[in-house]
User: Fold this.
Amino acid sequence: MSRSAHPAGPRHADVLPEGHYTAPAADLNVLDPKVWAQTVTRTESGSVSVGGIDVADLAEEFGTPAYFVDEADFRARARAWRTAFGHDADVFYAGKAFLSRAVVRWLHEEGLNLDVCSGGELTTALSAGMPADRIAFHGNNKSVEEITKAIEVGVGRIVLDSFQEIVRVAHIAQSLGKRQRVQIRVTVGVEAHTHEFIATAHEDQKFGIALADGQAAEAVRRALTLDGLELIGIHSHIGSQIFDMAGFEVAARRVVSLLAQVRDEHGVELPEIDLGGGLGIAYTSDDDPREPHEIAKALGEIVTRECEAARLRTPRISVEPGRAIVGPTAFTLYEVGTVKPLEGLRTYVSVDGGMSDNIRTALYDAEYSVALVSRTSDAEPMLVRVVGKHCESGDIVVKDAFLPSDLAPGDLIAVPATGAYCRSMASNYNHALRPPVVAVRDGEARVIVRRETEEDLLRLDVG
Ligand code: LLP
Assistant:
């Protein structure tokens, strides 16, 4: 992770512990548009607004902690992906990043397809009107019930992840009198530059079927013989929060070479390839994400070039961005509860949420930014660690950041870029109530996922 050396200047720099920190912004009141949703701005009164509504009003109406999603930004990003890939390609939003019925409707309206990886995601998608044939079903261990439902409702494709699943899906389809469109997920043997837990294309892991030792070619051979399956293509997903396009290019090249091998062996040109999701977003000002049109251009060129070289018809490309669409569009709003300076170390700022609404810092050592949003401040920057209210010291939301040194209980602070994998990975640890997701657009705010209540907790507790 890129870190600059110790900043010089501010009073608190004198007491910085060993280590490297991103230097505090020259003016902590300035919000870097790279990490904040599009409509987030500082108002004249000094507080911050999103979609034209002041965060203080949002906090009063919806409480804290809460996630606020900038609907206009979500739609704009979805549209940018759709436009960048054009009519010869498909964009499947990865629902695991964050899924709700409102989101499904936005996607549908903006012309995107949807990738789901569980019966729960499938039900949510269908209940909000996503046509089944625009849904792709993923997962390395789909249950018989999930497969059956997916085939019965007519999902556009099931992505097969193992030899057993090839047979399982074929049998279920056949018993339902159907022929299911499928892709085979392969591992292309790329070491993606990201956290180990979210890298998925090296061979030593649970997803997919390896290209390297001929396993993937064998999987194609078997799938082509089974009546219940219509093999439409090959799928590769190399990992998540990746900035370097090189991994995608290697993946594309290897997938195309499998297509050529399949053509040579079976006389069949598979019509589709899916290159997965995984494009990185800016969590801090140090991150420099690619724009969808750059990604579309790079992928399109490499696939076309490789196909020409192999004298293959260029297949239809699909991609599955999750984080890159929803991640930057939301922030989490917290109220500061306590401010605890530790002399010679740092200041611990405790907020009213924590690892139950954002597990990514604890799980992946993820970096986040943070800002004081209920007012401006000219106080000097102080090095802070933003922590939650859970019963463990690993309950960290933002590991190292700077906030004004006059920060006090009652202030509102916000952590940007929490749209992906925060609400979707939220938990009830310590019986915390999962925060609501509120969509804000053109001066209107509406709850799209409500806050959990203690009644919700007790409803599940039937003992
Ligand atoms: N397609 C497949 C097959 C996937 O497994 C994933 C993510 C995606 C697409 C979407 O990837 P994205 O564009 O969102 O990076 N919980 C982790 C991320 C896990 C990603 C799992 N698969 C995190 O918080 O960083």
Observations:
- The chain has twelve helices and 21 strands.
- Residues 1-11 have pLDDT under 50 and may be disordered.
